[in-house]
Structure formats: C-alpha cells, structure tokens
Amino acid sequence: MKSNNITYLLVIFFSLLSFNISASVRTEGESLTIWKNSLLSSCSSSVLHSWSVDHIDDLCHWTGIVCNEEGSVTRINLQEANLLGTLNQLNFTSFPNLTHFNITKNNFTGPIPPSISNLSNLISLDLSLNKFQSIIPVEVTLLTDIKHLILSFNNLSGPVPWQIGNLPNLLVLNFSDNKLSGPMPTSIFTKLSNLENLNLCGNHLQGILPLNNMTKLSKLELLRVGRNNLSGSIPEEISLLRNLKILSLYKNQFSGPIQQNIGKLHHLLALDLSGNIFSGPIPPSIGNLTNLSVLSLHNNSLDGTIPEEIGNLKHLRSLSLASNMLQGSIPIFIGNLEFLNDLLVSGNQLSSLMKDTSAETSICELHYLQVLDLSNNSFGGVIPECLGNFSEHLLVMNLAMNRFKGTIPGTFKKGNVMQSLHLENNRLTGPLPKSLANCRRLEVMDIGNNNITDSFPRWLDTFSELQVLVLRSNSFNGDINASDTKRPFPKLRVLDISCNKFTGSFPTNYLDHFEALMNVERVGRAYKMRFPVNLDFRRPNYYEDYVSLVLKRNEIRVVRILEMYSVIDFSNNYFHGNIPSTIGKLCTVRFLNLSHNYLSGQIPSSLGNLSMLESLDLSSNKLVEKIPWQLTVLTSLSVLNLSCNFLVGSIPRSTQFDTFGNDSYLGNIGLCGFPLTLDCNNMNGTPQLGTLVQEEKQSDFFAEFDWQTALVGFICGIPFGFLALYYGRSISLYKILPRW
C-alpha cells in the first residue's frame, strides 16, 4: 500500500514537471514570434519563416535556435540575417536557460534594453555590427556569468560603466568602434583577473592608460585602445603584462619616450604605437621581442638612428618607421630580416642606403618584400640594381622625393607582379629602361619631376591595369603617334604628361579609347589601390597608394585615388593643331588642362558634354573665335582659364559662368561683356583678334608688332613664368590605414 502511494506521487510529480517544461517551451516560442512580428525587415518573414506559433512543438529546429535536452532555448544565433528592428519586444525573462545570444551583422537600432540583465545564465553576448544607440545600460554588468561581451561597431555613447569590473568571469571585452567617451574605468585593470582580450579602440575615450595597479591582468593577451584621445606616457607597469601578444595604442596622444621595459613583453607578436607623439630614440630593448611579427612606430617624433637590435627580430614581417625624425642610414642588419614583407621608412631624414659597402647587399637579401617605401628622405646615389629583381613578391616600390641619380635600373624581370612604382622627385636621367615593359601589372606609375629623356613610352598602352600615369616635368619629347593597340589604356583615369617637350598634333587616337573616362556607370565607385601590410594577423592594415596632382591650380595629395579624380594634363608642351571634338566623349573627366601649348582653331563645343568637369584650363594657346555657349551648361565647373588666346565676341552668361572673374579671360582683347569692363556695344572700332594668328603668318613679325600683340605677350608671359616655376613642385605622401 505504501509503495503504491509513492508510485502515485512520482507520477504526479513528473506529470507536473513535464507540464512546466512544456509551458516554458511554449513561453519561449511565443516570445520569439512576438519579437519576430515586431521586426521591420521584409527579410525577417523569409529568414525566420520557421518561427511560427503553429510550430512551437518544433521550436528546437527553428532557424538560429539551439535547445538543451529539455527543449529549452540555450542559444539564439541570427548573425548576418539582414534583420531590421529593435530588441524592445523581446521578453528576456522568457529565456532562463539562454547562454549565447548572437545577432551580429544586422541592422538593429535603438537602445540596448536594461531588461537584458534577466538573461541570468548568459555566457556570450554579441550585438556587434549593428546600429544600437544610447548608452551601455549599467544592467549589463549584472550578467555575472558572462565571458564574452561584444558590443563593437555600433553608435553607443556615454561612458564605459565603471561597474564593468563586477564581471569576474569576463574573457573578452570588446566595445570598439562606438562613440564612448570619458576615462577608461580602472576597475577593468584591477578586477577582471580572467580578461584575455580588451578592445576599446575607435571611441572618444580620454585620460591616461590606468595600468598603475593592474597586476591582476596577468592573462591579458590582446590590448587594443587605438583611435581614441588617450594621453600621458606608457606606464612602466605595462611590462607586467607578460602574456601580451598584441599591443595597439595607435592614433592617440601618448607622449614621452617609449619605455625600455617594453622589451620584457617576450610573447608580443604585434606592437603598434603609431600616430602618437612619442619622442626620443627607439629603445634597443625592442630587439628582445624576438617573436615580434609586426612593429609599427610610424607618425611619431622619434629621433636618433635605427637601432641595430631590430636585426634580432627574425620573425618580423612588417617594419614601419615612417614619418619620424630618424637619421643615418639603413643599417646592415636589415638583411637579417629574411621574412620581411613590408619596409616603410618614408618621411624621415635618412641619408644613405648603406652604412658600408655591404648594406646594399643587405637590402637585396629581402627576397619576400611586398611593399618597399623609402620615399621622402635624403637617399642619394644610384638605385640598387637588385630592386628590379624582386619580381615574385614586390607590389609597391616607392623611392620618391629623394636624391637618387643615374638611370632607372634595367633589371625588371618577366613575370613581375609590381603594381605601383613611384620614382618622382629625384634626379634620375637617361631613357626609361626597356625592362619596365615587363611590369605588366602596373596600376600606378609616377616618374614625374626627374630628368628623363625619352620618347613617349607607347608600350605602356598595352598595360590593361594601368590607371595612373604621371610623366610630368621631365624631358620627354617627340610625337605621340597613333598606337597599334586595339584598346590602349583601357583603365587609365589619370594621365599627366605636362611640362615636357612633346610635339605634334593632339593624340586623338588615345582620347578615342580612354574607356575608363567614358564610362559614367563607374563614376562615384570608390577605388582604393590597397596593398596588404602585415600589421595584424586577423585584420590586416593596408598601404594605400597615392598620387600628387595639380588640380584647380593647386597641388594636392590624393591619398585615396578615387574614380572622381579623373585627370588629363597635357599642359606646357608643344602640341599644335585643333583640339579634337572627340574629347567630348570623355564624359567623366573632372580636371582638363591643355594650357601653354600651340593649339589653334575653335574651342570644341563638345566640351559641353563633360558634365562632371570641375576645372578647365585652355590658357596660353592660339585658340580663336567665340567661346561656345555649350560651356555654360557645365554646372560643376569651378575653375576656368581661357586667358592668353585670340578669342573674340561676347562672353556667354550663365549662373556658373558669372562666377568667373577677369583672370579667366585676360589676354583676349577681342572679348567683351561681363565680367570685363568692355561693353560689347562699343566693339565696333576694335579689331577682331580671331584673325591675328593668320596675320602673323602673312606678315613680317616686326611689321605687325603693335600695342595689342605686345599687350597680349606681356599679360600672358608673366603668368607663364610663374606657372613654369609652380608646376615644377611636387609633394608626395604615403598613408597606412589601420584596420585593427
């Protein structure tokens, strides 16, 4: 009898338990469907099609849902589901067993609900790559079992809650790329003894790095606080982070010397202190970091020489010391870094590639180089022949703005993978080497501002990837004759051959085939010439290419080479004949400069088709007749220079044209109307200057020389002199984009 009662009670107990479990599962399913119905994205109905009250019994097979043995939800994983909405309608109290909640890479907005603290068993929370706003609710710090807290890439603002130190089990804390402000809570460094990964980069945090009492962070492996407004010096206590593998402090306001004891971080794989105000020498103790793969110290105020101890870093793949005040030479130890991919030392005061005769050999031992940037230093002598031999790996060779002399090495091998070649602003002479024709993957070639003497390198028009070609300010000469190539320069967007000695008629054949300048559909599509730089193993940085261009009478540094920078500059040469009407097909050109040539005939009305044109300079030629009214439809035109020609008649009027002043028309004494003071109604006695060119041909020069032609020569001659000086300048720049 007694045993029957016990059996009866057990049956009742398990029946009630089963009922409770079933009720709990139903509550979870109903909460999920209510949340689903609140989402705005049309994709939610398709992605979450299985989420239906009619299928609650099959809850554990719903998209993104994982259950335990009792059928209760333990994981919600909806990453990259293209969902749009908020978390406001999600009843977190319905999920007592939830351990993982991942909705990364969606379009969720609004605040993070404080009720999220009801997920008392949560171990991992990932809300990254959404659009959450407002502050981080302090209730998040009640999730005491949490190990991974990832809120990166949102629009969160306000301070980092100081109560974050109440999460003793935290392994990963990632609040990067938000708008958080205020100081870094000291509780992070004094209480989170299990923390392995701390990432607060890309915010507006201020103050110092509070490492003064951080002995409990012995497990920390990754410390990323770059792209903030942190200041002060690197605390000496940083040497206590003995397990640190990645230390990234870039783009802050840290100052003072780099501490010697940083060399005690023997497990360090990547060290990025770039973009700060560090001063003094590079500490030799860095040579103790023998596991280091990435050393990035660029954009500081470091001085002295490059320490020889860096030669101990046998695993180093990326060395960036650019934009400092380093002096001396590239020392011989560089040859020890046999796995080096990237050597970036531009923007210093280095004066020699070699401390002794063997140093040239040392740099030639770097067979795995991908990016070599020695630009903007004081290197002299000849360019080492070996640099042309790095055909298997070298993508970027930038030797610009130095004092290299002699000829360009003729050792570029077949199968060359080089994509960017910068030799501008040196003292190079002679012709272009024939072996350059082997660099068929070139995208950027800039050899401007040298003393190269050669004809136009027609073989370049077969380079299908070439987008930027700058030959300006050299001694290139001769005609640019028609090419036999069926599709010459198919991707060329920047062509600058100004300030040379080219002759002959306008190279119409090339203009007719500049496909990239005719394709409107590609306009506005940002194109960055990027090359991987090993500044992180997981998310690499990039060396971003550049070009220096004279645009709108100013020389600018175009670091982001976008499709918007479509440039043709043929100025300061000896081209003659008419400007072909086919130039009007280059509908994406934004900057066109044909000034200081001997071009004649009328200004083609087809220029009115260049709807994106921002700057047009046809000055100092022999153009005649009227200014075509079609130019008045160029609403983007902000710079116009038609001075020093033989144009006549009334200047056309439009809202845009009325913004141009007298300087745009100087030296055309047959022009009248606004903005000139000469009224077109008083032009009866004024000679039509459109015939002056023909008169010069038919008469002795001195017989025809009068006050009018003297005035044209005086007005136009002085600007020509200044322009000749101006166009001779060039400024270059490299840029490294952090992507940590």
From TrEMBL:
It is a single-pass type I membrane protein. Residues 27-68 form the Leucine-rich repeat-containing N-terminal plant-type domain. InterPro entries: Leu-rich_rpt, Leu-rich_rpt_typical-subtyp, LRR_dom_sf, LRR_N_plant-typ, LRR_R13L4/SHOC2-like. It is found in: Cell membrane. SMART domains: LRR_SD22 (SM00365), LRR_TYP (SM00369). Gene3D superfamilies: Ribonuclease Inhibitor. Keywords: Cell membrane, Glycoprotein, Leucine-rich repeat, Membrane, Receptor, Repeat, Signal, Transmembrane, Transmembrane helix. Residues 1-24 form the signal peptide. The keyword Cytoplasm does not apply. The chain crosses the membrane at residues 707-727. One of its GO terms (cellular component) is plasma membrane. Residues 197-322 form the Disease resistance R13L4/SHOC-2-like LRR domain. One of its GO terms (biological process) is defense response to fungus. Belongs to the RLP family. This is Leucine-rich repeat-containing N-terminal plant-type domain-containing protein.
